[in-house]
Amino acid sequence: MAFRLTGRGDGGFEDLDTSHISQVRGYWEALRNGASLPERAAVDPRGMAGALEHSFLIERVAPGLARFRIAGMVFTDLLGMDVRGMPISALFSGEARIELQKSLEKMFSTPGILSLNVTADRGLGKSRVWARFELLPLLDAQGACTLALGCVGLSSPAFRLGHLFSIASVHHQPISGMSAPDPVDIPKPEAEPKAFSPLRLNSLPPARPDEPFETLHLPKIVAPAAAKAKAETQVKTGVPYLRLVK
Question: Which range of residues forms the domain containing residue 72?
Fold first, then answer.
């Protein structure tokens, strides 16, 4: 189902450059195995090299809430800072965040392609911005739908937002052949802070700029009780901590 909205004055959504979205969407479709969702591990940046600056990867961290794991330089230009670790809602106005929360949870709980037509003002004397976000669900290492590959198409080149995005329309396209899991209750959203702290939200090591979709390796965490039991077992069995290899 295609959008049929018409903008006011600046050409609106009909003048969007959706070439980057088309490239990412085509790559995602090619990764699908029948009716299943692609796995995160299968995503190779070389498959969408021409759209990396407009692409991003988000991770579901709570019902209706998702944060940027990786994001292209376009998003740095939009907010004037590195958005990795920040919630995707940081790009949207307070009124739009409730609709965004519902849309994200629907995409993750009933896997489907999510498209958002959005607008924002650049500031006094500047033309309005029209944009489209397209989010494509992915499976994580455990086989759950908690990730999404996304791309944005803009009516203007890279710019700094004067105001946050408002949502003009939402479209969720269910993926045929996939059974929907049990519905997830969406809690009443709490008021979001006016400012977001990347340090508070980001617990993942950042991706290197030259490899925007590299695999992130997290340190292995051993519970204190398990570590103590392992040490006691090694002492009792006489297993040495170090071994000399000739």
Answer: 12-219
Q: The tokens 């959504």 sit on which residue? A: 13
- Please choose, from the candidates 43, 83, 2, the residue with its C-alpha nearest in 3D space to the C-alpha of residue 214: 43
Q: pLDDT tens digits for the chain (246 residues)? A: 333 333 344 557 877 889 999 999 999 999 997 778 999 999 999 999 999 999 999 999 999 999 999 999 999 988 889 999 999 999 999 999 999 999 999 999 999 999 999 998 876 666 788 899 999 999 999 999 999 999 999 887 767 777 899 999 999 999 875 544 433 333 444 444 343 333 333 333 344 444 444 433 333 333 445 444 544 544 444 544 444 444
Domain-located, residue 198: yes
What CATH number is attached to the domain comprising 47? 3.30.450.20
pTM (two decimals): 0.69
The alpha carbons of the chain give a radius of gyration, in whole angstroms, of 21
Total domains in the chain come to: 1
